[in-house]
């Protein structure tokens, strides 16, 4: 699918949102919000798939356990890269930038609209920790469900928060025949520069 200069505007977030809308509407795209996030610390890069939970002029938002590998890496080295790939559409979004913690108010607003079972899962699953077996994880989820039985007032776990990836670069890639692909890239001007 062609990606011509005339097809895009000056705001990369608007263009990413347009592509995201296309992916959500496409029946062949199974997980339109899946994105790979790369972090690093002490020369040890890691990458994993998370779900995009917010997209606006602040950037790309996802949630995680602050005690997880990515949470610790982002705290120590507040930079990240991401890729969103829709193979069936031959489209990809890439971005790099700094990270900022999502405000507690925004996390609470997001938390309260999550399905009840997802909130239980956030309490029961301590990402990046080792559990002896699946039965232990299931038992933890059952205990959380019992603890909050009969109430929808389930607090946000103290370790569960979100991150904004604030992009300094956003790129769109569109696959074309003969590997003559189209690419468009936006770079944020450094402070004090045009």
N-C termini distance:
32 Å
Helix content: 25-40%
Main beta-sheet annotation: 8 strands, antiparallel
Low-confidence stretches: none
What fraction strand? 25-35%
User: Could you tell me the radius of gyration in angstroms?
Assistant: 19 Å
Number of strands: 8
Overall shape: globular
Structural class: alpha+beta
Give the rounded overall mean pLDDT.
86
How many helical stretches? 5
SSE order? HEEEEHEEHHHEE
How do the helices and strands line up, and which of them pair or pack?
Elements: H1 12-25, E1 34-41, E2 44-51, E3 54-56, E4 59-65, H2 69-76, E5 79-86, E6 91-101, H3 104-113, H4 116-124, H5 134-147, E7 160-174, E8 182-187
Give an overview of the whole structure.
The protein has 194 residues and is an alpha+beta fold. The protein is 28% helix and 34% strand. The chain contains five helices and eight strands; from the N terminus they run αββββαββαααββ. Strands 1, 2, 3, 4, 5, 6, 7 and 8 form an eight-stranded antiparallel sheet that branches. A hairpin with a 7-residue loop joins strand 7 and strand 8. Helix 4 packs across helix 5.
């Amino acid at each position: 699918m062609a990606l011509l200069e005339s097809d895009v505007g000056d705001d990369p977030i608007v263009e990413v949102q347009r592509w995201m809308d296309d992916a959500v509407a496409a029946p062949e795209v199974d997980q339109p919000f899946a994105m790979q996030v790369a972090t690093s610390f002490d020369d040890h890069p890691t990458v994993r798939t998370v779900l995009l939970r917010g997209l606006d002029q602040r950037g790309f938002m996802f949630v995680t356990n602050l005690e997880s590998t990515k949470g610790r890496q982002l705290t120590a080295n507040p930079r990240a890269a991401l890729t969103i790939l829709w193979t069936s559409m031959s489209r990809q979004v890439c971005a790099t930038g700094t990270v900022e913690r999502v405000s507690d108010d925004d996390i609470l607003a997001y938390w309260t609209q999550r399905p009840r079972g997802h909130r239980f899962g956030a309490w029961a699953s301590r990402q990046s920790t080792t559990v002896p077996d699946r039965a232990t994880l299931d038992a933890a989820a059952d205990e959380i469900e019992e603890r909050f039985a009969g109430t929808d007032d389930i607090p946000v776990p103290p370790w569960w928060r979100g991150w904004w990836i604030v992009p300094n670069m956003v790129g769109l890639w569109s696959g074309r025949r003969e590997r003559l692909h189209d690419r468009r890239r936006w770079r944020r001007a450094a402070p004090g520069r045009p």
